Fold:
Amino acid sequence: MTPAYETRADKASRPFAPTPVFRHNRAMIPAPPPLALYIHWPFCLAKCPYCDFNSHVRDTIPQSRFRTALRAELAFEAARLNTPAHRRLGSIFFGGGTPSLMDPETVALLIADATTLFTPAPDLEITIEANPTSIEATRFRAYRAAGVNRVSIGVQSLDDAALRFLGRNHTGAEALAAVELGRAIFPRASFDLIYARPGQSLAAWQSELGRALAVGLDHLSLYQLTIEPGTQFATRHARAEFTLPDDESAAALYDTTADIAAAFGLVAYEISNYAKPGQQSRHNLAYWRYQDYAGIGPGAHGRISLGEAILATRRHRAPEEWATRVETHGHGTVEQTEIPPPDRALEALLMGLRLTEGINRATFAARTQTPIETLLDPETLTRAEQAGYLTLTPTHLTATPEGRKRLDSLLAALVK
Structure:
């Protein structure tokens, strides 16, 4: 499964309950679950050397043009998703790129449009990603006034040397100041950290993570530094300009994270994410639970229910070409395909086992039209259970903490 944009968690609020039905094509079809809306802002001040996301640097950001295009594409998406029944909206996520470079007016208008075009949940979660530079932190109060109630801050590290290596435009002190400001302004706040950096010791990571969590946030996203094709780091790594910690060292860094996070009241609910009770990212949970999400903006992906079909959608990646397509056609879609049940099942399995809660088997079968056991090799499943990597009950399939650490290799052997 590809998320609404390739979030770092995918390198990414409740299981489906029985819902009302509506009439469509003379058949009774379950009403779709609440929609997660992703809005991609593709522009950044600089391109980080590890980043393979759809982000672009421009001397001048065309704010007005992209505001108009995003609103138009949102209206297009709502027109088809609201047929024949008005869709419920569970979350909005402004991602990027660097969405905290958006004019607050743009954020306010898109929120107003979304909550008019769809039926907003009473506890609608609205998140914006932000970097801790002073340029972006000054916008926090304006975003809050626009309706944003959750901020996700790309801290990445508190070590100044590591930040320079990662190509970040802020210092550790600026990061902590931005986190404090975000915590004071928004009801909910999260931050990202990158670990398994070159030369990173276990003691240094324990100290850094403790300093970060001492601020008192309710959510942490943690990502292992990986070398992605086409990035600056890929070129430099191929030239042996730096090396990454070996698997054993990286695993030790990962393991200590859970212990330190727990000491501050944060519990792992997904491979890369920790939260206090009730503070999980409801938007990202929609991806991992294989619920509907609509993606608008350059390069955005979606998984949407239209009648009995589930469609995979993708917008054009190039920002200016995307905007031209929206101006011409009302949307920038370049790919839309119906996902057959076997592919739905595989996508749902790959994402659902990332979660601590695992996969609800009844929900899985209803959503994918495929019983989960038909995907799994029985002998491999038995061995994985005996090894303590998986747990299968009448209601759930769950990867244990040890199983989640080796999920890629486990799934490669497990799926028929």
